[in-house]
Design goal:
By secondary structure, the chain is mainly beta. It contains two helices and 28 strands. The strands form six sheets. The chain has a 15-stranded mixed beta sheet that branches. Strands 11-10-26-25-20 form a five-stranded mixed beta sheet, with no helix packed on it. Strands 1-6 form a two-stranded antiparallel sheet. It is globular and about 90 Å long.
């Protein structure tokens, strides 16, 4: 912006007006019952049924041009059945199975967005630099709001709570030397996930053909793409309609080994292979809802979820040696009472989607309604000829270790000295990648060097993955 004389080199500009706070009266009631039956000496069955009824707040004011902003749906048929069984195949083997529904409640961020979505008490605006009265950097918009820049959000009259149907089948086998191995199959199917569409986008009437260059600037291909150049209601920029159009699929195989405490050692190790897929991906809009791109990409949004971690191995181990069996002061304070424990995690990376940076008019004679995306929708700026989840972050390799020393001063006063090391090997996993794969200039897509390479290594809770250590002393009395 500072490099231009107009100060309008930004992609888009947003601002909010109105009351800074609001109250959301929300109530929910639930009724449930459950029972357990022992059908035979080897077979137990438990089942239950729950009914939930949310009472969502209703807007005090609404937009007379959009009747949908007057109400927020409160579903009535949230029935949640669950059933589980356990069958003892023999003295050392047990088979377990389960199935159940799990509903997602209406959360505050979504209710707040729908409650204020009529743009009466509060209003959010979004402007691209080519629109009339768009501000020049560093100015902001005053009390007079330009026409055609406000945003609305409302829900479908049939909005429901998303739910998953989860099933599992488990075989557990007792092994020698105090160990147990468990094999599991887990399935979770998500229905009616919340998604948003921009109801103000008019149908695309023009098609732009974009040139694709290689790193040397040579043309290597072309991609035709319908472009949205108009809106249905010129009074507003975005009109978000929240519906239940998303779905998800999750399947996993898991193996777990547990060894009970023996000779001061206990071990628990687990490995999981899984695949998570959904079709509800896109930029997050008001209410924390993904904006689903219109089907003008000629490709599907269904692909690996952002949380799709294909493989994960974890190991927990504790060793508490007892070198001396007597209760002398020397044994209690110097030899015995030590404990060493570790938690290790090795896992594959997570998906990321390739994006293209777009600004301004690209093709002569075609002015997109929103210049921030190739298709003029102002929605997802992903590369249209790349699949969703085309990049992956790096693998995770983390080991934490704790040394503790118990100090039994008296029967009522005990001390515990602890030394802990987090990320002991100081590994630096790639937790973020450069997702910008192309930049668009006058209808030409130029590849970006380093697309898909790592650009972040952060970790909870300190936002750094660097090795850290701490020393602590605890007294219990």
């Amino acid at each position: 912006d500072l490099g231009t004389t107009t100060g309008k080199n930004y992609t888009y500009y947003t601002q909010s007006f109105g009351l800074p706070r609001s109250d959301l009266p929300y109530k929910q009631i639930g009724i449930y019952g459950q029972n357990t039956l022992k059908l035979s000496r080897k077979l137990n069955v438990n089942f239950g049924l729950r009914w939930e009824k949310p009472s969502n707040p209703q807007p005090k004011v609404y937009n007379t041009s959009y009747y949908q902003t007057a109400t927020i749906a409160s579903p009535n048929l949230n029935l949640i059945p669950r059933v589980g069984l356990a069958y003892q195949l023999n003295e050392k083997t047990v088979i377990r199975g389960g199935f159940g529904y799990f509903f997602t409640p209406f959360y505050g961020q979504l209710l707040d967005a729908l409650y204020l979505g009529s743009a009466q008490a509060q209003q959010s605006i979004s402007i691209n630099p080519t629109q009339t009265n768009s501000p020049a950097f560093p100015k902001v918009i005053g009390s007079t709001i330009p026409g055609g820049v406000g945003e609305l959000i409302y829900s479908s009259a049939k909005l429901r709570n998303p739910h998953t149907q989860q099933a599992s089948l488990v075989i557990e086998r007792e092994l020698p030397w105090g160990a147990t191995v468990t094999g599991s199959y887990i399935n979770s199917r998500g229905y009616k996930l919340w998604t948003a569409t921009d109801a103000n986008l008019a149908s695309a009437t023009k098609t732009a053909t974009y040139t694709i260059d290689d790193a040397a600037g040579n043309k290597v291909g072309a991609f035709p793409l319908p472009v949205i150049t108009a809106r249905n209601d010129n009074t507003y920029s975005h009109v978000y309609d929240v519906e239940n159009n998303g779905s998800s699929w999750y399947n996993a195989l898991a193996v777990e080994l547990r060894k009970r405490m023996s000779h001061g050692v206990t071990v628990q190790a687990s490995y999981a292979w899984s695949h998570a897929i959904d079709d509800a991906q896109g930029p997050i809009v008001e209410g924390g809802i993904p904006l689903v791109t219109p089907l003008i990409y000629n490709s599907t949004n269904r692909d690996s979820s952002t949380t799709d971690q294909r493989q994960r191995l974890t190991l927990n181990a504790t060793w508490q040696p007892t070198a001396m069996s007597n209760d002398s002061v020397f044994a209690r304070f110097f030899v015995n009472g030590w404990q060493i424990s570790t938690i290790g995690t090795i896992a594959t990376g997570l998906p990321a989607t390739a994006e293209v940076v777009t600004s301004g008019q690209q093709v002569s004679g075609i002015t997109p309604f929103f210049t921030s995306t190739l298709d003029g929708s102002g929605a997802w700026d992903r590369v249209p000829f790349y699949p969703v989840a085309s990049f992956r972050t790096g693998k995770q390799d983390n080991w934490n270790v704790r040394f503790t020393r118990a100090l039994p001063f008296t029967e009522r006063v005990k001390g515990l000295l602890m030394f802990e090391a987090f990320n002991l090997l100081n590994s630096q996993p790639i937790t973020g990648v450069n997702t910008v794969a192309f930049t668009a200039t006058t209808g030409v897509l130029h590849p970006v060097a380093g697309a898909g390479t790592g650009n972040a290594s952060v970790s909870y809770p300190y936002q750094t993955s660097a090795r850290s250590c701490q020393l602590a002393f605890r007294i219990t009395f």
